[in-house]
């Protein structure tokens, strides 16, 4: 199926060229990029109380800090396809990884300006990886192996994201720079991914860039299916990043300690990780996923409802949230490839889905922070999340149809070669 915080599945073989044999080096390189797509973001939520205390930021201002990555995803994503077409996928990915490493360090410097500036830059770099990985998998991974690679992709992205949430507070307690040093640990993963992709940059040069550039397709603004894929992507991202940003604070408001809240967030992501690993294997070969997407969204709504009505059952609520959001993530990423007719269309659809999707998602952390500051409780925020999860069920039902986006229009799928 797919894969994070983006990556889909190839449902048939592109007629442009045969895909090379899958190598262990390519798989490792893909997984290292996937590990960077959330690692520098998910730890911020657990560190927010310390950040607010040390910097004087209000909950609304902290909400802006969590909204910046989503806004940058939305702003950057539409330009990735064109840039990739001009300079090559591998070259662009290497540049993005280098920028990510530098920006992660900038964010941890002792300055509020650096905190926000570093977040802006690293978010733009992550957006490049978000859009390009579906194309890398579609272009380089043989059809029969795509399901396995996508499952591994989801696993790597989710596992590192969960670990980042769990270890951020303990790291802040033992490292000299407290929460600033805890924010900087992700540079290790960025550098590892950069090292893995540099040799592939040389391979691209030796091959004259044949594998670096693909067919450029226009963004499918006129496709209703593309809009449904985009809104499903946006709503699942809104739910996930809102939970990452505010779940520890919601649990702390209900009496849980900061450290316990961080590990509960880890548990939530771990459940999502297991779901993400299992779903691509359970749904392999199924091209119509309407009911799967709708059911997963309803499970998310149920999790928020329990968190609101029965806070003592927070663990049950987080279990449901993990199950639902884990499935929705995999589906949202896989739709960007499954609903595209070829590699060029995959890049175009992924760019649109992540631009529109993250623009929708960006409203989540900020809006919930404002609601909390205004009302003094999390009730209104949780009610809004329940309603948005149900809306996500409708978008997922439409995006799950067995259709393709081709030439900017919705088409019935042609013959497939798995």
From TrEMBL:
Boundaries of every Major facilitator superfamily (MFS) profile domain copy: 22-404
Any stretches that span the bilayer, and where are they?
Answer: 21-39, 59-80, 92-109, 115-137, 149-171, 183-201, 221-246, 266-283, 290-308, 314-335, 347-371, 377-399
Q: Which Gene Ontology CC terms are recorded?
A: plasma membrane
User: How does the record classify its membrane topology?
Assistant: Multi-pass membrane protein
Location comes to:
Cell membrane
Q: Say where the protein is mainly found.
A: membrane
Asked if the record carries the keyword Membrane, the reply is yes
Keywords (alphabetical) are:
Membrane, Transmembrane, Transmembrane helix
GO molecular function term, any single one: transmembrane transporter activity
Transmembrane helix found in the keyword field: yes
Q: Which Pfam families match?
A: MFS_1
State the name under which the record lists this protein: MFS transporter
Instruction: State the organism of origin.
Output: Amycolatopsis alba DSM 44262
